[in-house]
Amino acid sequence: MSKHTRINVTPLAEWLPQTDEPLVIAGPCSAETETQVLQTARELSKIPAVKVFRAGIWKPRTRPGGFDGVGVEGLRWLKQVKAETGLLTTTEVANAGHVYEALKYGIDILWIGARTTVNPFSVQEIADALRGADIPVLVKNPINPDVQLWLGALERLSHAGITRLGAVHRGFSTFEKTHFRNAPKWDIVIELKRLVPEIPILCDPSHIAGNRDLIPALCQKAVDMAMNGFMIESHISPDAALSDAAQQLQPAALADILDGLEYRRPQGDGEPEEFLKTLRAEIDLTDAAILEAISRRSEISEKIGLFKKSHNMTILQVGRWQQLLEDRLARAGKLGLEAEFVKALFQIIHDRSIRMQSEVMNRKTDNPSNQDLKDVS
Ligand code: PEP
Ligand code: MN
């Protein structure tokens, strides 16, 4: 169980110009030249939903030798962007020195990158440098799927007095093969929202996708998941970009994607309808039945554990697990359920069953001699 979270969040509507559409932060992965920055910003400022211009000037690169950003010089270009287009500006900060420079140049919003969110020392250093500063900060999810690290970073900033806070879902590193550069994990996003309901969450489809083709579908998904906006990479000539070339969009392509989105609201077009209420009641009943079935299954597992213990059998019987999985997948197939989902579900159920049986095996009170000792002590 997580500790009770108290993060004081100023609503997004109070610190950013609002439109009916979700907020869009757009701009190149990296600021490269003054011309590239200004040309990109001019084009993006023609898109009404784009309110904030992003550009990385200190770039965290996986391996040394890559383009690691233009540094402080880029901050002057961002100032020019604001003066010329009226767009607010944002850049990534990863240490106290970056914070100091960004504040000095009047950057409007800071963001903490995924590689920094994973490191509590770095986040604390940034939070300390921000103490007393009145600036909004967006926190990208950590590269590993750990909601507590994400939450911890928000808490550190909150404790430093930052209230204009937001989170950015940019996907997570995973060993599983997926179509994405960083797999989206909506369950983690939902959990963060549950822990801090007031926090605005933006989606960064660029770093999730890793290539332009997946971006439209991800944007629609983000809208359907009631995300509050986007951070999207856009470059005046994406293919020539010095970082993340495959995932950047030309400003016009970004405008097309935004135009094509179907906006839905949590309440839909009117009051929640009777129909939806009936279906939700059915879902509630079905979930109750699922929980009861799981509880019944646990009781049986416990009995099996006791039996295995008294017969000196190993907990894991690989043959049985293989057979069980095959059977469940075959049944699932007949019911039209996806194999991948059912496999993951039974892996969780089986893991728990193994854990419960280990507990039974190691439970001292079930061992008559220990029980006797306990009774006389
Ligand atoms: C970026 O926004 O360019 C970036 C480096 O992002 P992330 O921290 O999500 O990798
Ligand atoms: Mn990038």
List keywords for this structure.
377 residues, TIM Barrel, Chorismate Mutase Domain, subunit A, 2 domains, 14 helices, 8 strands, elongated, binds phosphoenolpyruvate, binds manganese (II) ion
Question: What layout of secondary structure does this protein have?
Answer:
Elements: E1 23-27, H1 34-44, E2 50-54, H2 73-85, E3 88-92, H3 96-104, E4 109-112, H4 114-117, H5 120-130, E5 137-140, H6 147-159, E6 165-169, H7 186-195, E7 201-203, H8 205-209, H9 215-224, E8 229-233, H10 251-259, H11 274-310, H12 318-334, H13 339-362, H14 368-376
Parallel strand pairs: 1-2, 1-8, 2-3, 3-4, 4-5, 5-6, 6-7, 7-8
Question: Would you mind describing this structure in some detail?
Answer:
This protein is of the alpha/beta class. It has two domains: 4-259, TIM Barrel; 275-373, Chorismate Mutase Domain, subunit A, CATH 1.20.59. Helices cover 48% and strands 10% of the residues. The protein has helices at 34-44, 73-85, 96-104, 114-117, 120-130, 147-159, 186-195, 205-209, 215-224, 251-259, 274-310, 318-334, 339-362, 368-376, and strands at 23-27, 50-54, 88-92, 109-112, 137-140, 165-169, 201-203, 229-233. Strands 1-2-3-4-5-6-7-8 form an eight-stranded parallel β-barrel, surrounded by five helices. Helix 5 packs parallel to helix 6 (147-159) and helix 11 (274-310) crosses helix 13 (339-362). The two termini are 33 Å apart. Residues 366-377 have low confidence and may be disordered. Phosphoenolpyruvate (PEP) binds next to helix 4.
